[in-house]
Amino acid sequence: MAHLLGGENLTVSFATRTILDGVTLGLEDGDRIGMVGRNGDGKSTLMRLLALRSTPDSGRVTKRGDVNVGYLDQSDVLDGDLTVGAAIVGDQADHEWAANPKIREIMGGLVADVDWHANVHALSGGQKRRVALAKLLIEDHDVIMLDEPTNHLDVEGVAWLSRHLKTRWRANQGAFLVVTHDRWFLDEVCNRTWEVHDAMVDPFDGGYAAYVLARAERDRSASVVESKRQQLVKKELAWLRRGAPARTSKPKFRIEAANELIADVPDPRDSVALSKMATARLGKDVLDLEGVSLDFKGGDSASRTKQKLFDDVTLRLAPGQRLGLVGVNGAGKSTLLRLLNGEITPSSGKVKRGKTVVTAVLSQDVKELDDVSDLRVIEVIEREKRSFSVGGKEFTAGQLVEQLGFTKEKQWTPVTDLSGGERRRLQLLRLLVGEPNVLMLDEPTNDLDTDTLAAVEDVLDGWPGTLVVVSHDRYLLERVTDSQMALLGDGKLRGLPGGVDQYLELREAALASGAVTGGASSGSARPTAASGSSAVVSGPSEAEKREARKDLNRIDRQLGKIAQQEEKLHVQMAAKSQSGDFDALGELNAKLQELLEEKEGLELEWLEAAEILGE
To answer: Is domain 3-222 in CATH 3.40.1410.10, yes or no?
Structure first.
């Protein structure tokens, strides 16, 4: 594969802290790389260096002369005075860009419901993100770098972006580098993972699931002392192995390794015990919506018309229920939480609340912390309560704060100096120590890194109460909730026995038929002609699937034989090593390397065949 760009001995320091120390790495044709690591460890810094948007303190970044690099910044960089059309295609006439089917597909997938003539500054955060993505993706780039591209995108937007990136180039052409906390997205689009930590970068083969397995194996073999981190990694791995079928369909050589590693790991949560505890705290009645309708006013100030956001919605929350809510931006997910919390009253219908119900809501902007901005982190928690029970275990405020990533030094940081992700973690802790029995989380994954998300999920596993989560993060929804429901933009709430995949199928069918156009968006987009067909991806034929199944069976047999040969070689090498016959040992080692290369090639073939079958 051809080398595209790379960094040599990159070093970056801020004040007294070294962010990157002598890092050397590169991108080649066919690389699909996801970057993970804790907030502040240097992921965005490394991406800016490789995109030539900043310079290192020492070292250099080189790229092949003809390589074109596209970069999506985490912050909003669009000119707010431009219209949507001008921001995306510049001064091109409609017939110019519309003649290109690739551009039409991108327009239909990202901005079909955005007003083509609206000024950028008037758009929502999610719409601005989609406009910026569309502007980048319609251009021809050999390398694309995306810093948190899934922020503000709904489930549909994330699914569309994953399909686009998987089909944008041929298998061994082009490359992209992405920083995201969306673990489903990482698993879906990446074939390599870079972990940025302690001023260095560790590469791993595969997406997020393979990275978790490899990291757990690495930590175990190195006898890492960080026992808390290992337990979280193992628990996360147990979920990957026991979770949704789409995620557990891994090659047998991966499944066996995972089974050995997690043999002693219990289920993420004891649902029966938690349900008993929740019933004891809540009684039989929690929160019910009965025939609820809610009107909202649309249009300009001169001609406001009433439209129904909810139409005869009925929802009954049970003690200990864990419910996930999905829907397009503007469909009313956050409004539904406000209804359940009693912040707004419906236009018609009833909201029934159990006598013992104590609710808590984690909002998207966490402005609630403004009232304690003069306090330090530990003081905020101790002000609420000094001890807390999670999963039957007692924690001090300091222990609980540390469990969610606040080190002993960080616990004394003023609230005003916290980052967005740290503020979100602190507010979640603040809510939990208040001991609510109904917890509602509105986009809780914003600004959190993958390690922190695993820690948050670990805390929620032992929390006994009713949980309602609004999120576009498919991984989180499948991980912490037991059922999902969708707001489809037609005022109705629908159950999803098939999970998020069923929701995407329903939305795709609705868009294709023209029955649903989105949430509460009032703008009309110019490039709507492509929206119906953009989501349709032709699948493999039955003949291709039959051939792929044959390949899988053949490769499984070959891998089994190689495993036996590998075991024999190891035995022979151990014997030669003891006898001191180093010439023979060298020959055996050469055979072993050939065998491992053959094994690696077969594993790649297995993965290609499995992709055809959707496994």
So the answer is: no
